[in-house]
Amino acid sequence: MSDSLVNSDKKPRLAPSRFSDVSQAAPIPVFALTAAFKEDKNPVKYNLGVGAYRTDENEPWVLPVVKDVEKQMANDETLNHEYLPVMGLGDFTTAATKLLLGEDSPAILENRAFGVQTLSGTGALRLGLEFLIEHCKCTAAYASDPTWGNHNNIFNKLKYPNVRKYRYWHAGTKGLDIDGMLEDLENAPEDALIMLHACAHNPTGVDPTQEQWKKIAEVMMRKKLFPFFDCAYTGFATGDLERDRWAVTYFVSLGMEIFASMSFAKNFGLYNERVGNLVVVVNNTDTKNPIISQMTRTVRVMWSNPPNHGARIVSTVLNNPTLYAQWKDHIKTMATRIFEMRQALYQRLQTLGTPGTWNHIVDQIGMFSYTGLGPNQVDFLRSKHHVYIMKSGRVNMCAITTSNVDYIAKAIHEAVSTVCEDPKL
Questions:
Q1: Which terminus of the chain, N or C, has fewer Cβ atoms within 10 Å?
Q2: pLDDT score of 421
Q3: CB-based contact 53:266 (threshold 8 Å)
Q4: Could you tell me which residues come within 8 angstroms of residue 211 by beta carbon, excluding any fewer than 6 positions away?
Q5: What topology is assigned to 83-319 in CATH?
Q6: Which helix (H) or strand (E) is 135 found in, with range?
Q7: Residue 191: what are its φ and ψ, rounded to 5°?
Q8: Could you give the angle at the alpha carbon of 164 between the alpha carbons of 192 and 169, nearest 5°?
Q9: Quick one: pLDDT at residue 2?
Q10: Is residue 423 reached through a cis peptide bond, with omega within 30 degrees of 0 on the bond before it?
């Protein structure tokens, strides 16, 4: 090697890095929280941040029906590791689409609906939003205030025009600002895309009632707004599939075209398998093949072919009446435990006489509770009691157990009683 290419210690001279101008990105908040939690050496600590189900022993739960199917698959010599079709495992996408819309849906019966297998709900959102901005007129994109962070991340990555918020959380009532939401939808331009949470709104846990959903649908139909439902918790939110999918089925029953992203991370416990489905409902069957052709090309340059294992598990369960019944019992088990932890935390805060009203803990639904705790109170919980929650005050109710609920309630009581969030005081 030439002397000009090596140092005195005979190691190669390294050229200046072409990556020197790459800036440090901000950490993803929920993963940064978990990292901080893991670094905490205190023997008593609780992470209420990450959105994953936990048993009352604070352990991950592999659903028994999932274990049974995996055993069957392990002994099935007909299975192989060949590529799935670009659009995914057909038995899975068909069953998943029926799960969301209902087998008697007019969109199903009239062949106006189809599904595309994706990399969980995030992949479904990305695929659907990329298709809409490339092939459909989109005057603006709206997400609730607040919303799951990846909604706006994807909007911005795809350079959506006029990304806006519609009012949703009412800090005073700790509930839904339905009047503000309806007003913002009324003022949205025609052909705007509206991101909606089908159930168990993330991060607030506040859902519209059926009567409120009807008002939302009426405005969106009249204003010609396009609904994109994020369905991350179907069945998991309440244990009742009909209730959790009601908003989606109602919009479809009105003859509205929709996109809907489905995730099977929560309701099947398949977090790392990345099982998702993008549901497309159209009003003209002639549009289906062109849409599928364009989505096929988009998938080809993103993940090319989806993974098989998790999708085959879901497909096997949804297409077998016995396994399907077992799975419905499992989602009831998870939803019931979350509800019981809401009740337990609420009762203990009431018993402690914690300042403020806390009925929103039990009024909200699903995995998350938007507690109303401010950032200073969140910092106090972390520094004083080693209780880790999101800066927004969002708590994962699954991480609360019968063994830690007293500790957490007392920590919240102390934070609210001693830490002021009002800048005027």
A1: C
A2: 66
A3: yes
A4: none
A5: Aspartate Aminotransferase; domain 2 (3.40.640)
A6: helix 120-135
A7: 75, 15
A8: 110
A9: 62
A10: no
Q: How do residues 307-316 score in pLDDT, each as one tens digit?
A: 999 999 999 9
Digit-coded pLDDT (tens) for 50-64: 788 999 998 999 999
- Is residue 137 flagged as an active site residue? no
Is 230 an annotated catalytic residue?
yes
Conformation bin of residue 195: beta by default, left when phi > 0, alpha when psi is -120 to 50? beta
Amino acid identity at 237: A
Q: Please give the full DSSP string across 86-126, using - where no structure is assigned.
A: TT--HHHHHHHHHHHH-TT-HHHHTT-EEEEEEEHHHHHHH
Class of domain 26-62+333-418: alpha beta
Per-residue pLDDT reduced to its tens digit, 244-258: 999 999 999 999 999
Residue 32 half-sphere exposure, CB side, CA atoms within 13 Å?
Answer: 7
Mean pLDDT score across all residues of the chain: 93
From the candidates 230, 244, 327, 358, give the one annotated as an active-site residue: 230
Domain parsing of the chain, residue ranges? 26-62+333-418, 83-319
Check: CB of residue 229 under 8 Å from CB of residue 202. no
Active site (annotated) includes residue 223? no
Which of 148, 213, 327, 358 is an active site residue?
148
The tens digit of pLDDT for each residue in 311-349 reads 999 999 999 999 999 999 999 999 999 999 999 999 999
DSSP string, 190-242: TT-EEEEESSS-TTT-----HHHHHHHHHHHHHHTPEEEEEES-TTTTTS-HH
Contact by Cβ (8 Å): 190, 225:
yes
Please list, in sequence order, all residues whose beta carbon lies within 8 angstroms of the beta carbon of residue 378, skipping any fewer than 6 positions away.
389, 390, 391, 393, 415
Whether 383 contacts 389, CB under 8 Å: no
pTM summary value: 0.91
Q: Which residues contact 229 (CB under 8 A, 6 or more apart)?
A: 196, 197, 198, 247, 248, 251, 258, 259, 260, 261
* Catalytic position from the list 177, 184, 266, 358: 266
Determine the Cα angle at 313 with ends 294 and 401, to 5°: 110
Count the neighbouring beta carbons within 10 Å of the beta carbon of residue 178. 17
Task: Tell me whether residue 25 is exposed, middle or buried, using C-beta atoms within 10 angstroms of its C-beta: 0 to 12, 13 to 18, 19 or more.
Answer: exposed
